[in-house]
Amino acid sequence: MRALTWVVNRMTRIMGPERALRVAGEFSVSFVRSFPPEERVKMLHCLAKEHLGEWLEGMSEEEKAKLMNSLLPLVAKEFPLAEIDILGAFSDFT
């Protein structure tokens, strides 16, 4: 895994952040689409559960709030809101 991380970091430096982000986006779409829908659900949940903290590492509470506020409309557009159990989703926080 270290070798892969090194390659990715090196390619990011060579390509620059904007091109690297484009390549990563294209790769991630192809990667995710290669799984059947039920496996995608498991994979995306696992990625978020295992790595979300790392992805947000170093961000201030204000930056996290801005990010969440900018992501919510995107999430709302892509998910069937009428079927979402918002209260149930947050029941573990009580």
Give the CA-CA distance, first to last residue.
38 Å
What is the number of helical segments per DSSP (H or I, 4+ residues)?
5
- Provide the succession of SSEs: HHHHH
User: Got a strand count?
Assistant: 0
Can you tell me the residue ranges where pLDDT is under 50 for at least 5 consecutive residues? none
Q: Structural class, judged by helices and strands?
A: mainly alpha
Major β-sheet profile: none
Dominant shape: globular
Give the rounded overall mean pLDDT.
91
Rounded to an integer in angstroms, the radius of gyration calculated over CA atoms is: 16 Å
Measured by DSSP, the beta-strand proportion falls in under 5%
Question: How many domain modules?
Answer: 1
Helical content stands at: over 70%
Q: Layout of helices and strands, plus pairs?
A:
Elements: H1 2-15, H2 17-33, H3 37-56, H4 61-78, H5 86-89
Polypeptide structure, described:
- The protein is an all-alpha fold and 94 residues long.
- It has one domain (2-93).
- Helix content is 78%, strand content 0%.
- The protein contains 5 helices and no strands.
- Helix 1 (2-15) crosses helix 2.
- The longest helix is centred in the middle third of the chain and has 20 residues, at 37-56.
Entry keywords:
94 residues, mainly alpha, 78% helix, globular
